[in-house]
C-alpha cells in the first residue's frame, strides 16, 4: 500500500536539477531581486534595437526609384478565342498620310513649340542659373571622384568641394565689397575738392567770362532740384541698383544650392538619362556621355588651375611694381583669365590701364612681364594641364567663345569650348561613322 505523499515535499527546493522546469515562473522574492550584472549588456542591446525600429504608424519616405530593366521583349498579341468575341476585332487605324491626321498633328506641334518658346522666354534667368549650376557640378565632379578614390565617402567629398567653392566666393566678395566702399568714400570726399579746384582754375574763368557758364549751371541745378521726375529718377536708380544687388546675391545662392543638388544626384541623373535611350544603343550612349562629362569636368578644373596660376603671377608682379589695389585686381585677373583665349589678354589690358597712373615706365614693365608669361602659359603650362581635357581647334575655339559671349555673356564664354568639344565629339563618333558606312 502506497503511503500518501506530502505535497510540500515536492516543492522546487526538493526536486532534482534535471526535473526543475526551466520556464517556471519566478517567485515573488526572485522578482524583487535586481538583475544580474552579466544581463545588462543584453538589456542595453535590446533597448538599442527598439530605438532603431521605426515609430509605430510611421511610413518610409517615398523615393523616385528607377524601374527595373525589361530584359524580355514581349509583343502584344491580338485577343483570340473568347476574348476576341468579347472585345471584338481591332478596327482600322487612321493613316499617317491622312489630311486630318497631318493637320491635327501639325497644329499640336506648332502649339507645343509656342508653349516651349513662351516658357523659355519667361524663365530665361532660371535657365541660366540651371546651366551655371550644372557647369559647376560637372567641374567639381572630378574632384569628388578623386576624393572617392582616396576612400572618402561621396557625401563628405561633396561637402568638402562645395565648402572650398563657397569659401572662394565669400573671399572674393569680402575683398571686393570693402574695397569698393573705400574707393567710393574716397571719391565722395575728393569730389568737392576737385570741383572747387576746377571752378577756381583759369580755364573755367575764361569760359565763364565768354559764355556765362556759372549762371547756366546754377539755372540747370535749380531746374533739376525742382523737377520731381528727375528726383524720382534718382530714387528709382538707387532702388534699381539695390534690387540688382539683391537679385545677384539671390542668384548666387540659388546656383550654389543647385550645384550641391546636381553634384549629389549626378550618378542618378546619368543612369536616368541612359535609360531614355534604346537598349541596343544604351552602351554607346553611355560611353559618349561619360566621355563628354569627363572632358567638361577636366576642362573646368584645368582652366581653374590656369586662371589661378595667372592671377598668382599677376599679383606678384603688381606687388613688386606697386600697382594700387593689387588684391582686387588679382581677383579680376582670375575671373577674366577663366575665360579661354581672350580672358588673359583683357585682364592684362585692364591692369595696364590702371598701372598708367604710376607712369608709363611701370605700365611698360608690367606689360612685358605679363605678356611674356602669357606666351609661357600658352606653350608650356596649358598643354600640360589641359592634356586630359578637351581638344578644340583654335579657329573653332575663337568662334565658339565669341558666339557664347554674344548669346549668354560671361557664362556663354565659359561654357563655349566644352560645348564645342561635345558637338565635335558627337559629329566624329556618330555622323562621320554613319557616313563612312555608306
Can you characterise this structure?
The protein has 438 residues and is mostly helical. Among the domains are: 124-276, no CATH class; 287-438, no CATH class. It is 74% helix and 0% strand. The chain has 15 helices and no strands. It has helices at residues 28-32, 40-52, 82-87, 99-122, 124-149, 154-199, 202-211, 213-226, 228-275, 282-321, 326-337, 343-355, 360-385, 394-408, 410-436. Helix 10 (282-321) runs antiparallel to helix 15 (410-436) and helix 12 (343-355) packs antiparallel against helix 13 (360-385). The chain is extended. It starts with 27 loop residues before the first helix and ends with a helix. Mean pLDDT is 75; it is low at 1-24.
Overall mean pLDDT stands at 75
Helical content band: over 70%
Instruction: Detail the poorly predicted runs.
Output: 1-24
Determine Rg (CA atoms, Å): 38 Å
Helix/strand structural class: mainly alpha
Q: Could you give the order of the helices and strands?
A: HHHHHHHHHHHHHHH
Portion of residues in beta strands equals under 5%
The best one-word shape is extended
Work out the helix count. Answer: 15
First CA to last CA: what distance? Answer: 115 Å
| Largest sheet composition | none
Beta strand count: 0
Outline:
It contains 15 helices and no strands.
Helix and strand arrangement:
Blueprint: H1 28-32, H2 40-52, H3 82-87, H4 99-122, H5 124-149, H6 154-199, H7 202-211, H8 213-226, H9 228-275, H10 282-321, H11 326-337, H12 343-355, H13 360-385, H14 394-408, H15 410-436
